[in-house]
Task: inverse folding
């Protein structure tokens, strides 16, 4: 390891390894063991980010670091992208699913924007100590992202069918977050500790990944689970 360079956090390392199936990300290699490589060199970026990391075996890693080798950055970027089939660069693949996946991606984007805004609002509100400061923070509220997320949910449910389990789960995710958001908005100043410390993104994580897996199943890139459908915990 280079002097002064921090280790890659274990959870980030884990995500990169899972992305590549704990094997070299070059499809014709797939060797083990693997190392974590920076697509744009560490010496330039000076940080560890998921989007710039890829799992490679020591041989491919050494070839990538060799400037005379044809295994260049353009190729490595393509290998990284290929690890995420929902963002496949091939038009025409799973054509009947394109509109479904697009509706899902739109929902994720709109929901993500709303979530980020609300988390920032909650963090700002957790810092205020007076009623006047609380009013000032509340005044900065923007309901646009919520409206966008709700519209994206309705479009998603229309595309997938309102009775479908994916629609139910997506709706439940939005409602669960909306309830938390309402609690944060209604909270008096200072915000109760249990609310300020509640990890809402962790609460959403499991059911979000379940929705994601179901979408992947529907898109034909993941085999369906044999186990019977579980009821929503909320
Ligand atoms: Zn390899």
Result:
């Amino acid at each position: 390891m280079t002097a002064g360079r921090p280790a890659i956090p274990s959870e980030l390392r884990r995500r990169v390894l899972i992305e590549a199936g704990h094997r070299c990300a070059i499809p014709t290699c797939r060797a083990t063991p693997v190392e974590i490589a920076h697509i744009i060199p560490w010496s330039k970026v000076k940080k560890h980010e998921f989007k710039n990391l890829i799992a490679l075996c020591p041989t491919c890693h050494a070839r990538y670091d060799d400037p005379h080798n044809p295994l260049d950055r353009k190729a490595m970027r393509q290998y990284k992208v290929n690890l995420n089939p929902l963002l496949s660069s091939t038009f025409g693949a799973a054509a009947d699913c394109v509109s479904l996946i697009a509706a899902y991606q739109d929902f994720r984007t709109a929901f993500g924007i709303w979530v980020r805004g609300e988390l920032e609002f909650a963090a700002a509100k957790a810092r205020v100590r007076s009623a006047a400061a609380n009013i000032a923070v509340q005044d900065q509220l923007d309901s646009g992202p919520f409206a966008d997320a709700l519209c994206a949910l309705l479009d998603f449910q229309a595309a997938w069918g309102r009775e479908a389990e994916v629609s139910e789960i997506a709706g439940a995710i939005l409602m669960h977050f909306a309830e938390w958001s309402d609690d944060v908005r209604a909270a008096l100043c200072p915000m109760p500790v249990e609310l300020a410390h509640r990890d809402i993104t962790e609460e959403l994580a499991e059911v979000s990944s379940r929705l994601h897996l179901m979408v992947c199943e529907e898109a034909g890139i993941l085999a369906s689970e044999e186990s019977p459908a579980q009821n929503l915990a909320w």
Q: What stands out?
A: The chain has two domains: 10-83, 95-218. Residues 95-218 form one domain. The first strand starts at residue 35 and ends at 38. The chain has ten helices and two strands.
